[in-house]
Design goal:
Helix 2 runs antiparallel to helix 3 and helix 9 packs antiparallel against helix 10. The protein has 17 helices and 6 strands. The radius of gyration is 24 Å and the shape is globular. The chain is about 60% helix and about 5% strand.
């Protein structure tokens, strides 16, 4: 069944691109692979990366998006005819200097890690081999896959409609997935075994308080809880971004997903949701973006604080202890492990210790005595500051950019809502390893939105036209062009009824001049 699911995915993704709008097909394909493909399973291909639940959806979706995005007469021609073409940013990497800098830092960190760890690591009778050229190539390959997922979101999902599509499909997907979650809450994590014939993780880790932590088709129950948390926030963000009576239905959907999240037995995801939900309900787009940027800053600064001996989560553990002793003990255990791993990484702070579990702490007998659960800790111990700054810089750059622009011009509620959804994921990277393809896709979408806000430069599918500079006051006279911000067409100032339709490529709505014609 695992082979059948992997082989059937490209066909289903192709049907999405044939039948659905462009942005909807991209998000639906990525969500399908993220939610339903088998975990802890891969197909080895010589030279190329192994095909698993992360790489297969990425490569298939990116290939289809590039193919159909370049066609002017493809199946998405009806979108163009209706005057609502998808926005595609030109190029193959964000046109933002900071993105190139952080990507270069991450790549340089991989090479530096290799040079700094060529020799073996000997602890008592345990020997950890040194890194080889093959290891650094594998690390660079992983970075490229992350960059490609970022580029997929940046290039194709940067405009307002695409970002609303992300929120809407996350809301719809979680409603169906919540039913499967409730099945495993009642019957134990069995769906992956029933469908694919094996369990992807340690079953004992998913027994909590006399009940079970659901997994469904995710690699771990914590990843499922994170998806429920992010999707619950996406429902509220989409509810704020739309108008009409449907908002009441989305409120009830949020309440339903919140109940399922509580039943998923993950205190961390529940706390993250409770922390961010008030901002989505109460704040406008500007303040939502500021809150998201503040959370991202605290996440990025957390390793610096830990390296300086400051432990912000100690008070959190003390506050949780009266209500959940086991959870407080688990958090204290993680903090102790962090201190040991940070002290071990202090010997190679710039480039880390590399793979083969060299970044772990060992006892005098050569046995590993540390557990590295948080993604930041794994990244820091393996790649040092170079690897950490490069990866987290790319993840947070778009949100920081939108927050800086929000001082003068706030983004839309869809963009600010996505900022908070990404902030929830970033918070989870402190205690857990919840970095997924969905994380990079949202980060790329926000990076593209920031680029649109800065330059208003994009290619519109179906026309082949390129938008002019943001401050240009000269209107374009090409028929059928759609503005980047999808503003309505301005009325021609001439009396000629056959004059072509004019649309301004501007970040601001054009002011009406004179009396409008009936």
């Amino acid at each position: 069944m695992t082979h059948a699911a992997m082989l059937a995915f490209p066909l289903v993704a192709w049907l999405f691109f044939v039948r659905l709008p462009f942005a909807t097909a991209i998000v639906a394909s990525m969500l399908l692979g993220f939610l339903f493909l088998p975990s802890a399973y891969s197909i080895a291909i010589p030279v190329l990366p192994n095909l698993d639940r992360a790489t297969l959806p990425l490569l298939v979706t990116l290939g289809l998006a590039l193919f159909y995005g370049a066609r002017r007469d493809g199946p998405h021609r009806p979108e163009v005819a209706m005057g609502d073409p998808p926005t595609i940013l030109p190029g193959f990497f964000p046109k933002i200097g900071g993105a190139h800098i952080f990507a270069g830092i991450a790549l340089l960190g991989s090479v530096g890690t290799w040079f700094a760890n060529t020799g073996p690591l000997i602890v008592a009778e345990t020997v950890r081999q040194g890194l080889t050229l093959y290891d650094v190539l594998n690390e660079i390959q992983q970075l490229i896959l992350w960059f490609l997922t970022l580029v997929l979101g940046w290039k194709f999902l940067a405009d307002e409609k695409a970002q609303r599509t992300i929120l809407m499909l996350m809301a719809g997907a979680v409603l169906g997935y919540s039913l499967l979650t409730l099945v495993e809450v009642r019957l134990a994590p069995q769906l992956h075994i029933w469908v694919y014939g094996y369990f992807p993780h340690d079953f004992l880790q998913h027994i909590r308080g006399g009940s079970f932590r659901p997994v469904v088709f995710m690699p771990h129950g914590l990843v499922l809880s994170l998806f429920l948390c992010m999707s619950a926030l996406a429902i509220v963000a989409y509810m704020r971004a739309i108008d009409g009576d449907r908002r009441v239905l989305y409120f009830f959907a949020f309440c339903w997903v919140l109940v399922v999240l509580l039943l998923s037995r993950s205190l961390g995801a529940v706390l993250i949701a409770m922390l961010i939900v008030p901002s989505l309900f109460l704040f406008n787009a500007r303040w939502q973006t500021f809150v998201a940027a503040a959370i991202a800053f605290l996440v990025v600064a957390y390793p610096v604080a830990r390296a300086l001996g400051i432990s912000p989560l100690t008070r959190v553990a003390a506050a949780v202890e009266p209500y959940a002793q086991s959870r407080a003990n688990s958090l204290n255990f993680r903090l102790e492990n962090e201190e040991d791993v940070i002290a071990h990484t202090a010997a190679k702070p710039l480039f880390g210790w590399g793979g083969y579990n060299r970044g772990a702490v060992y006892s005098e007998t050569g046995r590993s005595i540390s557990v590295r659960d948080g993604f930041w800790l794994v990244q820091y111990s393996q790649s040092g500051w170079f690897g950490y700054v490069g990866i987290f810089g790319l993840l947070t750059l778009g949100g920081f950019g939108l927050a800086a622009r929000a001082i003068r011009r706030p983004p839309s509620l869809a963009a600010s809502g996505l900022c908070l959804v990404l902030a929830a994921n970033l918070m989870d990277l402190i205690p857990n390893s919840g970095l997924t393809s969905l994380t990079w896709l949202i980060a790329g979408s926000l990076l593209g939105r920031w680029q649109l806000e800065r330059s208003s430069s994009a290619v519109v599918v179906g026309t082949g036209a390129t938008a002019g500079p943001a401050r240009s006051r000269r209107p374009r006279a090409d028929a059928g062009l759609a503005a980047i911000d999808q503003q309505p067409a301005t009325t021609p100032r001439t009396a000629n009824e056959d004059a072509p339709e004019v649309r301004r490529y501007s970040r601001f709505k054009p002011r009406p001049r004179g009396r409008s014609r009936a």
